[in-house]
């Protein structure tokens, strides 16, 4: 698999995940995670309260939104 195939696969998976989360009923919420799914660091309580259902620390979320997920 070359870089373009990998990028297309990552884009497809991200898009499918985003669409699935949009289709979920708004009443089916979960609590924010206490630790980041990417780096494992603790997510500050202030962020967890400000961003319900968050699963990443601020740094990892910014990287994720920029597409810097190729660790």
Walkthrough of the structure:
This protein has helices at residues 3-23, 45-50, 58-66. The chain has 71 residues and is mainly α. The two termini are 17 Å apart. The model has no long low-confidence stretch (mean pLDDT 82).
Q: Approximately how much helix is present in the residues? A: 40-55%
Spell out the helices and strands N to C.
Answer: HHH
Mean pLDDT: 82
Strand content: under 5%
Task: Kindly name the structural category.
Answer: mainly alpha
Distance between the termini: 17 Å
Summarize the model shown.
The protein is mainly alpha-helical and 71 residues long. The chain contains three helices and no strands.
Layout of helices and strands:
Blueprint: H1 3-23, H2 45-50, H3 58-66
């Amino acid at each position: 698999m070359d870089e373009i195939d990998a990028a297309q696969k990552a884009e497809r998976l991200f898009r499918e995940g985003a669409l699935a989360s949009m289709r979920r009923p708004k009443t089916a919420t979960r609590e924010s995670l206490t630790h980041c799914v990417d780096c494992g660091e603790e997510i500050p309580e202030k962020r967890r309260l400000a961003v319900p259902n968050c699963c990443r620390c601020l740094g990892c979320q910014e990287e994720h939104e920029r597409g810097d997920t190729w660790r």
